[in-house]
């Protein structure tokens, strides 16, 4: 297995960010030439020398992380396959490197992205109370941020908002609060009944300061992962786009209902949920995903992939460029501008520990595109 010295890892990192000097490039080339083919394991078919070279350095970059889950991995599903692959530990097939060192010109042909080093989603959110007043949580000190009737709202040091209800009253149940995350933000919330919600970027959740006596009802726009406290006497309902309703008693599930996505999806990890819209109704089991557009259908899915965002990763499968860019817009609070995009579909994992320029670098190598920063916008050149 490839185990490069620390200085080579550092140089590989500089190559990926486009900041490597000519002298450093020479050192990296010399190390590359000395590696035996059997030391390097990769997934691929029909790769060029440049693609193989790019893959090796991406894997080196991955080994700078503390564990294999934090590796950028982008692989094409077409015959020319990936230009940026998973770390060696995750690979089972192999390919031999060319016996001749690729030229420096070919190595550097992937033009570095202009500086756009934005970090991904962090704990950023605004809490809007029933009276319209807004609390910017990322600027607020830890401790109690609001009292509504007998309900106390606390902010913890871990970026979590906790509702601690006292004696429930009708008035409190009518006090609707809204938690909103911007692009580049995320937040955790514990509802008055003890249910937990992880709110993804560019999302909002409306909920009462205390639930009433008959049901627990919230309204979601965007994406959230729910762990619902069990209470058979009070069904939990999530109102989502297109007038649909998700009803549960106690379960773990993820809902993606962004307005700029054509589908609304509900993925079940534990328990049972029922999705209804007009005359459509569907109950799904753990491991299934309900997809709502003009119809309502259930599919078997990889649940870990669907909730990867909640664990700090963005994982995509057979995803087109436009879908990836929409996700990056929400993560990094940027806007992509393009006239056309590659037709390739990609699979991979991107850790949120990566800055935007690093992710764009991987997409340049993989997809044959270039990115140019123009103020807040990033132009895609195909």
UniProtKB/TrEMBL annotation:
Note the superkingdom of the native organism. Bacteria
Q: Which residues cross the membrane?
A: 79-97
Q: Which UniProt keywords apply?
A: Membrane, Transmembrane, Transmembrane helix
Statement: the UniProt record of this protein carries the keyword GTP-binding? no
Instruction: Give a GO molecular function annotation for the protein.
Output: sigma factor antagonist activity
Task: Give the Protein FecR C-terminal domain ranges.
Answer: 314-379
Domain FecR protein: from-to ranges = 178-274
A Pfam family per the record: FecR_C
Q: Does the keyword Transmembrane apply?
A: yes
Name by which UniProt lists this protein = DUF4974 domain-containing protein
State the organism named in the record.
Dyadobacter psychrotolerans
